[in-house]
TrEMBL record:
One of its GO terms (cellular component) is cytosolic large ribosomal subunit. GO terms for biological process: cytoplasmic translation. It comes from Caedimonas varicaedens. PANTHER family: 60S/50S RIBOSOMAL PROTEIN L6/L9, LARGE RIBOSOMAL SUBUNIT PROTEIN UL6M. GO terms for molecular function: rRNA binding; structural constituent of ribosome. This protein binds to the 23S rRNA, and is important in its secondary structure. It is located near the subunit interface in the base of the L7/L12 stalk, and near the tRNA binding site of the peptidyltransferase center. Keywords: Ribonucleoprotein, Ribosomal protein, RNA-binding, rRNA-binding. This is Large ribosomal subunit protein uL6. InterPro entries: Ribosomal_uL6-like (IPR000702), Ribosomal_uL6-like_a/b-dom_sf (IPR036789), Ribosomal_uL6_a/b-dom (IPR020040), Ribosomal_uL6_bac-type (IPR019906), Ribosomal_uL6_CS (IPR002358). It holds the Pfam family Ribosomal_L6. The gene is rplF.
Length: 177
């Protein structure tokens, strides 16, 4: 029995969910999202809750049970509250700024990196060394944060680079004389 899958997803106030065939769509204050449901699970909406059950006792159905429940939960949470990732930039001369729909990163290269901001994502640079990425889709927010971090990941000797706010970088000792 799936410990995650057996709990229903509560639909918060102000969110509308519709199930048509194998497509679940949700609409809230942060926009509208939809996802396709696997044929290995049965999804039903009743009394302000979305419940997910396996269609059979096969291994594939039981695997998709908890996964689908978590994806439905992320869909509902995204349109009602949204998701946020924070990035920190460490290093001398490393900074970021948002100009219109473009993120400008100065990460020690000979040129600035211009990253176009997608329409469904908001990026805010509170300080030149910290970024906040937010949006309705958890997958999109995480993907954008990973792409920005990938330009100059944190290095283990001085800790320079772009890292997640709560990420711990294991530091190494430099060479000895």
């Amino acid at each position: 029995m799936s410990r995650v899958g057996k709990n229903p997803v509560v639909i918060p106030q102000g969110v509308e969910c519709h199930l048509s065939g194998l497509t679940l769509s949700a609409k809230g204050k942060n926009g509208a999202l939809s996802m396709s449901i696997s044929s290995d699970v049965i999804v039903s909406i009743a009394e302000g809750e979305i419940s997910v059950k396996p269609s059979s006792q096969s291994k594939q159905s039981r695997m998709m049970w908890g996964t689908t429940r978590r994806l439905v939960s992320n869909l509902v949470h995204g349109v009602s509250m949204g998701f946020t990732k924070r990035l920190e930039i460490n290093g001398v001369g490393y900074r970021a700024s948002v100009q219109g729909k473009t993120l400008q990163l100065q990460l020690g290269f000979s040129h600035d990196i211009l990253y176009p901001i997608p329409s469904d994502i908001q990026i805010v640079a509170e300080k030149p060394t910290s970024l906040t990425i937010s949006g309705a889709s958890r997958q999109r927010v995480g993907q954008i944060a990973a792409e920005i971090r990938n330009y100059r990941g944190p290095e283990p000797y001085k800790g320079k680079g772009v890292k997640y706010e709560n990420e711990f970088i294991l530091r190494k000792e430099g060479k000895k004389k």
